[in-house]
């Protein structure tokens, strides 16, 4: 399987990359390093099944090539952090909303992509990798999360 991970130099993306490579899959990540860190992926950079693009997900030319070459997309790219959201709200909206739209639009162009996964928090990541039902992963079943401009709002029933 050829996986594309947007936001792959972040905490979750780097661990997902490592896990997929250990399982024998090819991994390409794209990250502009605005919140992701090279330190998270340095140990992967020499691996034959790992490719890294330092770029913004709003670059349609680059995204088109990367998405065309993959079988599955894990869309983790997001502008996060209260300070960033408050100081650059328009940039946050562009990355989070328009970036997601860009990834979906291009993925739709190439119908052979088997799966698109949008993971929005650590619990979903742990569930994804472990196979543990979300109800058993520590989060109350009745809790629902919504995001606006990168800010998490939790609704507890």
Question: Can you tell me about this structure?
Answer:
This protein has 5 helices and 7 strands, in the order βαββαβααβαββ. The protein is an alpha/beta fold and 157 residues long. Helix 2 (60-68) crosses helix 4.
Q: Can you summarize the main beta sheet?
A: 5 strands, parallel
Order of secondary-structure elements: EHEEHEHHEHEE
Bulk shape: globular
Q: Ranges with pLDDT <50 over ≥5 residues?
A: 122-127, 134-157
Strand order of the largest sheet: 3-2-1-4-5
Features of the shown structure:
disordered C terminus; 7 strands; alpha/beta; 5 helices; single chain; five-stranded parallel beta sheet; two-stranded antiparallel sheet; 157 residues
Give the topology, please.
Layout: E1 2-6, H1 11-22, E2 26-31, E3 50-54, H2 60-68, E4 72-75, H3 82-87, H4 89-109, E5 115-118, H5 122-130, E6 143-148, E7 151-156
Parallel strand pairs: 1-2, 1-4, 2-3, 4-5
Antiparallel strand pairs: 6-7
Helix pairs in contact: 2-4
């Amino acid at each position: 399987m050829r996986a594309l991970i947007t936001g792959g130099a972040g905490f979750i993306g780097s661990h997902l990359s490592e896990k997929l490579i250990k399982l024998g899959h090819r991994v390409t990540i794209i990250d502009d390093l605005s919140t992701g860190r090279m330190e998270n992926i340095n140990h992967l950079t020499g691996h034959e099944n790992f490719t890294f693009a330092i770029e913004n997900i709003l670059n349609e030319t680059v995204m088109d090539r990367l998405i065309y070459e993959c079988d599955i997309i894990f869309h983790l790219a997001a502008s996060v952090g209260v300070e960033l959201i408050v100081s650059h709200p328009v940039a946050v909206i562009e990355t989070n909303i328009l970036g997601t739209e860009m990834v979906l639009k291009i993925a739709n162009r190439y119908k052979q992509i088997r799966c698109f996964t949008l993971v929005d928090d650590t619990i979903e990541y742990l569930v994804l990798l472990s196979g543990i039902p979300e109800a058993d992963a520590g989060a109350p079943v009745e809790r629902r999360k919504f995001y606006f401009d990168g800010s998490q709002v939790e609704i507890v029933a």
